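hiii so um. not sure if this is the right channel but i have a protein structure encoded as tokens and i wanna go backwards to a sequence. like what aa goes where. can anyone help
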């Protein structure tokens, strides 16, 4: 039924978990959690009418991640946003 190592199934499958409503968390709070905050921020705003404004808001955090070896991580997040998010100006996003 589930294709995963038995130890993971025993530990996680059908166990209680905590669901986080990112919409209830202030953006400033999300920005304090550099790595997870970027993912949380992207998930929170992925369906905004224009994701570019939100990206500008976390540009400093993305720069910090880049300085700590997070370039691949940033690329994955930006690719997801480009593929799924709404952008008014894709050229501005890519520059």
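sure thing!! here u go:
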């Amino acid at each position: 039924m589930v294709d995963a190592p038995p130890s993971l199934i025993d530990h996680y499958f059908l166990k209680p978990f905590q669901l986080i409503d990112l919409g209830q968390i202030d953006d400033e709070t999300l920005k304090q959690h550099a790595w997870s905050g970027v993912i949380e921020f992207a998930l929170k705003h992925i369906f905004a009418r224009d994701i570019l404004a939100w990206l500008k808001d976390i540009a400093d955090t993305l720069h910090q991640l880049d300085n700590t070896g997070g370039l691949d991580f940033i690329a994955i997040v930006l690719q997801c946003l480009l593929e799924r998010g709404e952008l008014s100006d894709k050229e501005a996003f890519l520059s």
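oh and The chain has seven helices and no strands.
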